[in-house]
Specification:
The protein is mainly alpha-helical. The chain is built from 36 helices and five strands. α1 packs antiparallel against α2 and α14 runs antiparallel to α15. The longest helix has 21 residues.
Length: 697
């Protein structure tokens, strides 16, 4: 190898050139290793270690070794090297910078606040020693902002921009952005770009300001321009990916994420970003390959194991999912998501050793704890473990604690949901729907399965997806994003309320929105089957909008006994959404509001929605499946009755349950906790007594 030859030249002292020549050869080797860092960190690592074998303790070689380890995705090893280096070289700004970056990488994996504090200290020392280290300032700013130190973060960002460009206008714009004066920052950036069109730093900053203002679409153009003018501008491309991922254009986001991975294949963060996008479009196998690639380089990353477990679970590889979750929990026992993910498989029983490990991971006092989500998930997992052991009182206590922790961090007002239900019923009357008959996009493709979580909707989806003409996708956010955009017009003052905004939609608007939905969801369709399922349960809130923009779409309402459905939802930790589910009274009010809206829509559009009662499906599966397919206008197929043999990917909490035949255990499971459910009964009111018929009927 060239590196070994260089090291031998250094060892020989380069007799022909004397001592000065030996020094020159050493410097050349160090320069060569430094140049390799960005593209080939593992080769740079090998060269640095070869130099250190010949010249032990050489500070520059140690620095390159630490950099290479970090860039190769081995931040823990980098930390060991760099901590020793800064002890020996307390005035080496570059070493402190690299130590800070290694600690940031570790903190990103472990979500450890102490690592963040150490990174901040190292980066502060670096910029104190050498104030012109722009990348150290940027890294410090990111850590301060993550720690909630917005003012200090803004100052650090200012210092980084000053070191990088010395442009006073960019400096002021960055300060304004960091302090939340976004309109001022916007004006300054446009002034800067007027004087220097195409400045990538200004374009990226402009994109970030627009993104922070909530102008997601407007942020894309400057970010795209920054990447076009500076293809190696990684920070601009990373931000572009994240902004694109907020909208419907996941395909473009994936293209840029793939470029990041191609340019730096050993960068674990870029691989994680790409994998998250692959998961989003349903390419679980592609995501699994990326996660396994990261683990092959460094098997000590709990977050990667956790994400791998989620993918394996979705693909139906239960044994692999269990192994991945247990590896994550073993690496960091305080990772509540790993324990909850195990418990949430529903087919794994956590034993006494698991319970002891989870209890040991719980802090004595979690008030203000930065890992509140993990703590909440530990309580949910402990609840499931005690429930499986038949210890209802201990189980309920842990569920209650986990729910209280989760609820404390959420903004939810049940009255908002109830007002929206009244508004929906007031707008979508039979006369209103009649006047809009024939409008919208005529595509018959979508089958919406709506209802509450834990209502049996995944079972309905799996049965339908076992039909030769129906493709199962996942819980798609697209209809809700369209609805949110329409609500944005109310917030902007264009309409006084949401019903008025909906009533103002013209026939052309309805057709365009329906076509948009079909286009947005196309990326999730992997087969040529004519129909597909959108199983976002919360779409019950928008059945009227569905009727307006997709009049040929079918709607299936999956409904389960109020106590069984609500209690099951309450003891479920949801990764996102379902903010109503962490209080027994609130989930009861939500269920009652849902029943009220669906009953009103049934009166306005009889037969438009087909209802599947979970208990009836369990009691008479063949009859219920035939009725379901009749409503869809599809012939009966035996495969729908052996739905558990379908190996499609399933991403919901019921993924393992729908991979086995229907069983009756869950129908009355809530009765084990009956004595604690009075708040839920009171909130449900008449809905409980009249089930399955709505009180209005």
């Amino acid at each position: 190898m060239v590196e070994t030859a260089m090291a031998r030249d250094v060892a020989r002292g380069n007799d022909a050139a004397g001592a000065g020549g030996a020094t020159g050869t050493l410097e050349a080797a160090l320069v060569h290793a430094g140049r390799l860092l960005a593209r080939q960190p593992l080769i740079a690592l090998a060269q640095a270690r070869e130099i250190l074998r010949v010249v032990p303790g050489h500070p520059h070689a140690l620095l390159i070794e630490g950099q290479a380890l970090r860039l190769a995705g081995r931040p823990n090893e980098a930390r060991v090297v760099l901590e020793a280096l800064v002890r020996d070289q307390p005035s080496a700004a570059a070493a402190f910078t690299e130590l800070g970056l290694a600690l940031i990488a570790l903190e990103g994996e472990a979500e450890d606040a102490s690592l963040r504090r150490q990174a901040i200290a190292a980066l502060r020392r670096a910029v104190a020693l050498k104030p012109d280290l722009a990348h150290a300032w940027y890294a410090l700013a990111g850590q301060l902002r993550a720690a909630g130190e917005a003012g200090e973060a803004a100052q650090a960002e200012v210092q980084g921009i000053e070191a990088a460009s010395r442009d006073p206008l960019l400096l002021r714009a960055a300060m304004a952005m960091g302090e939340g004066r976004l309109d001022e920052a916007l004006a300054m950036l446009r002034q800067r770009l007027g004087a220097a069109p195409g400045d990538p730093a200004a374009l990226r900053l402009l994109g970030e300001v627009l993104w922070r203002k909530g102008e997601v679409q407007e942020a894309l153009d400057p970010l795209r321009a920054a990447v076009a003018r500076a293809p190696a501008f990684v920070a601009a491309r990373e931000l572009l990916v994240r902004v694109l991922a907020l909208g419907p254009d996941v395909g473009e986001a994936l293209d840029h994420a793939a470029r990041l991975v191609t340019d730096d294949p050993d960068h674990g963060g870029h691989a994680m970003l790409k994998a998250s996008l692959l998961v989003r479009i349903g390419d679980q196998e592609g995501a699994r390959a990326l996660y396994r690639g990261i683990i092959a380089q460094d098997s000590g990353r709990p977050r990667v194991w956790l994400n791998l477990g989620h993918v394996e679970k979705t693909l139906g590889n239960q044994a692999a999912a269990v192994e991945a979750y247990r590896r994550a929990a073993a690496l960091d026992p305080a990772t509540g998501e790993a324990w909850w993910s195990l418990a949430n498989l529903k087919t794994v029983r956590l034993d006494e050793a698991d319970i002891a490990a989870m209890r040991a991971a719980l802090p004595l006092d979690c008030v203000g704890d930065e890992r509140a989500d993990d703590i909440a998930q530990l309580h949910f997992a402990l609840g499931k473990a005690h429930e499986d052991a038949g210890q209802a009182e201990q189980a309920f206590a842990h569920y209650a604690r986990g729910n209280a922790l989760r609820r404390a961090g959420l903004d939810y007002d049940p009255a908002r949901t109830e007002r929206a239900v009244s508004d929906h019923a007031g707008l979508f009357t039979a006369p209103f729907l009649h006047t809009r008959a024939g409008q919208g996009c005529a595509a018959p493709d979508p089958i919406f399965v709506v209802g509450l979580p834990r209502s049996g909707s995944t079972l309905v989806e799996q049965i339908l997806a076992s039909h030769s003409q129906i493709e199962g996708t996942m819980e798609l956010p697209d209809l809700m994003l369209i609805a949110d955009r329409l609500k944005g017009r109310v917030e902007d003052g264009e309409f006084p309320d949401f019903p008025t905004a909906l009533a103002a939609l013209s026939p052309a608007d309805c057709r365009r929105l329906g076509e948009e939905y079909i286009e947005r969801t196309r990326i999730h369709r992997k087969t040529d089957r004519p129909f597909f399922i959108d199983k976002m349960p919360n779409n019950w809130q928008h059945v009227g909008l569905i009727a307006m923009i997709l009049p040929q779409a079918k709607v299936i309402d999956a409904r389960r006994h109020p106590l069984g459905c609500c209690f099951s939802g309450w003891k479920q930790y949801f990764a996102r959404g379902q903010v109503f589910s962490y209080d027994l009274s609130e989930i009861g009010r939500y269920y009652a509001a849902y029943v009220r809206q669906m009953a009103a829509f049934d009166r306005a559009a009889p037969g438009r929605v087909h209802r599947v009662i979970y208990e009836d499906m369990v009691a008479d599966t063949p009859g219920q499946v035939r009725a379901l397919l009749d409503h869809l206008g599809l012939p009966f197929e035996e495969g729908c009755l052996s739905f558990w043999e379908n190996r499609r990917a399933v991403r919901t909490a019921s993924s393992e349950q729908v991979r086995r035949p229907i069983y009756t255990d869950a129908v009355d499971h809530w009765k084990l906790f009956d004595r604690w459910l009075d708040p839920l009964r009171h909130a449900l009111g008449p809905v409980l007594e009249s089930y399955p018929v709505p009180p209005e009927a």
